Amino acid sequence: MEERDAIEETNNSAFGPLLLDVGISLLKAGASASRIKIVLSRLAEVYHYVPHITIGSSVISLVLDDSDGNMMFNRSRSTPVHGIDFNVISTISRLSIAAEEKKMTLQELEKELIKSQSPQRYPRIITLCFVGLAGAAFCYTFGGSYTEMLITFGATFCGLFVKQQLTKSNFNSYLCTYVAATTASFFVGLFHATGLVVSPIDAFSACVLFLIPGVLLINSFIDLIDGNTINGIVRLVNALIHILAIAIGLFTTIGILNLKG
Amino acid sequence: MAEWINILFKAFFCGCAALGFAILFNVQRKNLAIVWIGGVIVGLVKFSVLQYFSASIIFASFLASLTLGIYSLITAQRRQEPLIIFAIPSVIPLVPGVFAYRTMFGLIELTRSVGPDFSRTLSETVHNSVLTLFIVMAFSIGIVIPYLIGKDLLNKAT
Question: Is the complex ipTM higher than 0.95?
Answer without folding.
Answer: no
